[in-house]
Design brief:
Blueprint: H1 2-25, H2 27-31, H3 35-52, H4 57-62, H5 64-70, H6 76-79, H7 86-103, H8 106-114, H9 118-127, H10 130-174, E1 179-181, E2 184-185, H11 193-198, H12 202-207, H13 214-250, H14 258-270, H15 280-306, H16 308-311, H17 318-337, H18 343-361, E3 363-364, E4 367-368, H19 381-394, H20 413-419, H21 422-440, H22 443-450, H23 459-473, H24 479-497, H25 502-511, H26 523-529, H27 536-559, H28 561-566, H29 570-582
Length: about 575
């Protein structure tokens, strides 16, 4: 009977949690009858629903449209526009363009043309969804390791056969004219070099089993086990490299992952009119070095853990040279199978280059870029994203100068609608709603008052604490929902401690993407775990060190080049807080 009860609870735990969480938290708004308590009640419900995935994340993300107006925290007309703000347009445009890249197979052509693994995966993940980058590169990774394993096995077998043949020939020659079975004798055996090399001799076939001693069979078994272990480790290393590269690449650009886009929206709305703003270029200057350093250290750690013998080799032997030649031939063969680049690939490639140039040159800190051609503050990074995202929906899929040409866009709208990640867009809107409710209800002020005991902690210690907590929290929940919960709280902490908010929210933004330890932490981890070649213990063992590396690199960035990029000196902090004493930020 108790077992049946447990089974019943296990089958219905989501439904039970869906009902119990609001009921358990209900005393909060009943006892404390103010807007802060009502806002806190809703935020706690949303947070627990997100963490435990009681209902799908996109469904939870739509609840603020119901709860905040009903609780009197925000008007319905204030909440609804938050679900399609400037950053949502930026994210939509980048998703639409990423789909265009995938639909014309440009991502695979780039991967095979560059012929790398980690750098290529990271580069793709900078511009398209990290799960898409991991999905693209997973077959490439498996093909590479399978080719290396096949070549290694063939080369090992060849060496073993030559060695055994030579040994057997010597034994046969010694036993020449000696009776070895049923009174038969082996006459003089003469083998030339070519016969030995080809392992085709009749002598080898006839006597190899007779002269194979028990300890020789055991030794061969150990060699085979060692060979299998070597390539099993290499396979794990290659797959983990694919997942980690996708994660690292995503944090390097403003459009690479959800939290990066969310922090821009949070900063644009919370600190509007201050000296703190985020654009594509200054975020790239801050995050790209973090990605490059992490990628190099990740490669080194995976080499040490899964390929240390090759790492410390002073020179490449014949086997390695032949394996690399075969691998190169395989990649060239796969690239040729793609055929010549099509009109649509050229078009999307040109749009890609234009998009990057427009993002980088829109403005240079305090100096205007091409945005000076338009009315001040009327264009943003989302303008570029939507422009480049819509072009594949308009431009033709084939050369319009061909005979019998028929117009068809590169991307069909109905196909785009089916493939776009609407759930992530809703999650961004929910995050902005939570941040807006924090300020409108003055819950942020209450949190700041409650955290005044932290005022004496040094800024560096604060940053370490934020990075570690954010990085560990994101292992068990979505990185975007984590940033949605943490950023409003960190804003309050920064204000109460007289620390410029950038020192806390920017490291937090990168830290919530440092999900390396568990399959559930991020889609790339789940994708390579689904291959069946990587165990949870492998991911934890490798991911712990990767998390530590990530924490250290983000801390280094937050205390060295980030303050210079965003102008976070003492004077800037004074100006920021003097402005905020006279202006209440709003979303």
């Amino acid at each position: 009977m108790p077992n049946q009860v447990l089974i019943s609870i296990k089958q219905r735990w989501r439904l039970i949690a869906l009902i119990l969480i609001p009921l358990i938290l209900l005393p909060l708004p009943i006892i404390i009858k103010n807007s802060q308590a009502r806002c806190g009640y809703i935020v706690l419900i949303l947070s627990l629903y997100w963490i435990f995935e009681v209902i799908p994340l996109p469904v939870t993300s739509l609840l603020p449209l119901i709860f905040f107006p009903m609780a009197g925290v925000l008007k319905a007309e204030e909440v609804a526009p938050l679900y399609f703000r400037d950053i949502i347009a930026l994210f939509f445009g980048s998703l639409a363009f990423a789909h265009a890249v995938e639909s014309v197979n440009l991502h695979r052509r780039i991967a095979l043309a560059l012929g790398g693994l980690m750098a290529v995966t990271a580069f793709l993940s900078m511009w398209i969804n990290n799960s898409a980058a991991a999905s693209i590169m997973l077959p490439v990774s498996l093909a590479i390791i399978n080719e290396l394993e096949r070549h290694g096995k063939d080369y090992s077998d060849k060496k073993r056969i030559i060695k055994q043949t030579t040994s057997i020939v010597h034994e046969v020659l010694e036993l020449n004219e000696t009776e070895i079975q049923n009174g038969d004798t082996i006459k003089e055996v003469i083998l030339d070099a070519s016969q030995i090399e080809e392992q085709k001799t009749e002598v080898y076939v006839e006597v190899k089993q007779r002269f194979r001693l028990p300890w020789q069979r055991q030794a061969q078994s150990k060699v085979d086990e060692s060979h299998e272990k070597k390539y099993e480790d290499l396979r794990k290393g290659f797959l983990l490299a694919t997942a980690y590269s996708a994660t690292i690449g995503g944090l390097a650009t403003l459009v690479g992952t959800g939290p990066n886009i969310f922090v821009k929206g949070f900063v644009d709305n919370t600190y509007k009119g201050t000296n703190f703003n985020i654009n594509f270029l200054n975020f790239l200057l801050f995050a790209l070095p973090v990605g490059i350093i992490m990628l190099i250290l990740c490669w080194l750690w995976l080499q040490i853990l899964y390929n240390r013998q090759e790492l410390f080799k002073c020179r490449t032997d014949l086997e390695d040279r032949e394996a690399l030649a075969d691998l190169k031939a395989m990649l060239i063969r796969q690239y040729r199978d793609l055929g010549k680049p099509k009109w649509s690939e050229y078009t999307v490639g040109i749009i890609f280059i234009i998009m990057i140039i427009l993002w980088v040159t829109r403005e240079f800190g305090e100096t205007h870029g091409w945005n000076i051609l338009f009315k001040e503050d009327y264009t943003s990074d989302s303008t570029v994203a939507v422009f480049c995202g819509l072009l594949p929906l308009i431009l033709p899929n084939s050369n319009p100068f061909q005979r019998n040409w028929k117009y068809e866009p590169i991307v069909q709208w109905n196909v785009l609608v089916k493939n776009i990640s609407w759930g992530v867009i809703f999650l961004l809107g929910a995050g902005l709603s939570v941040a807006s409710a924090f300020i409108a209800s003055k819950l942020s002020d209450s949190v700041a008052q409650a955290l005044r005991f932290l005022n004496g902690i040094p800024r560096a210690a604060f940053i370490v604490l934020v990075i570690v907590i954010s990085g560990l929290f994101t292992e068990v929940t979505s990185n975007l929902s984590t940033s949605s919960i943490f950023l409003p709280v960190l804003d309050s902490v920064a204000r109460s401690s007289f620390i410029h908010p950038a020192f806390l929210i920017l490291p937090c933004t990168l830290a919530v993407s440092l999900a390396f330890m568990l399959p559930i932490a991020t889609p790339p981890n789940a994708i390579i775990f689904g291959s069946g070649c990587v165990r949870v213990i492998d991911m934890i063992k490798t991911g712990i060190v990767m998390n530590i590396i990530g924490f250290l690199v983000v801390f280094l960035a937050a205390t060295t080049w980030m303050p210079k990029i965003y102008g976070l000196d003492d004077r800037a902090t004074e100006i920021f807080f003097s402005f905020n004493r006279t202006t209440t930020p709003g979303l």
